[in-house]
């Protein structure tokens, strides 16, 4: 196990321990962005867009100010939401329809948050480095979102579904 994988594994262990005593969706989303910023190197933004009123709306995040609303199927976040799958973009300048919130971001990974069959949000992580995210991040961040979903009460957020 290399240093990067060890750090990601440690991140998920710390995240699971953090959520053992808290189930509130807002608190857990907020703390999860802090954990990501603490454990992941070479990222400049980590946060959520929450599905509300037929758009993805900015939720808890760490980083510079961000785009507030993203339409379904627009940009990397909108595509990940619509397709209900993890998207890894090695060079955002080559992604058709990429939405530029921070021109310093060069690569991105977006993971849909699916609860009871409904996509309720996406986790978006940006990096100023090209090709920052690969299979290792995909694996451990998918586990990270599973930990979030298993330990969080999203029912108040899902009342609109």
Automatic annotation (TrEMBL):
Residues 34-146 form the GAF domain. Pfam families: GAF_2 (PF13185). GO terms for cellular component: cytosol. InterPro entries: GAF, GAF-like_dom_sf, Phosphatase_reg/MetRdx. GO terms for molecular function: L-methionine-(R)-S-oxide reductase activity. Belongs to the free Met sulfoxide reductase family. This is GAF domain-containing protein. It comes from Halanaerobium hydrogeniformans (Halanaerobium sp. (strain sapolanicus)).
């Amino acid at each position: 196990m290399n240093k990067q994988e060890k750090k990601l594994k440690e991140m998920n262990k710390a995240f699971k321990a953090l959520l053992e005593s808290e189930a509130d969706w807002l608190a857990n989303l907020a703390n999860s962005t802090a954990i990501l910023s603490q454990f992941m190197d070479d990222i400049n933004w980590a946060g959520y867009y929450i599905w509300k009123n037929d758009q993805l709306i900015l939720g808890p995040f760490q980083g510079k100010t961000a785009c507030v609303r993203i339409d379904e199927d627009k940009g990397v976040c909108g595509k990940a939401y619509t397709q209900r799958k993890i998207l890894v973009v090695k060079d955002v300048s080559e992604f058709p329809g990429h939405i530029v919130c921070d021109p310093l971001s060069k690569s991105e990974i977006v993971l849909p948050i699916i609860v009871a069959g409904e996509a309720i949000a996406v986790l978006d992580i940006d990096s100023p480095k090209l090709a920052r995210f690969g299979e290792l991040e995909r694996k451990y961040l998918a586990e990270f979102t599973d930990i979030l979903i298993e330990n969080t009460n999203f029912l108040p957020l899902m009342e609109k579904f």
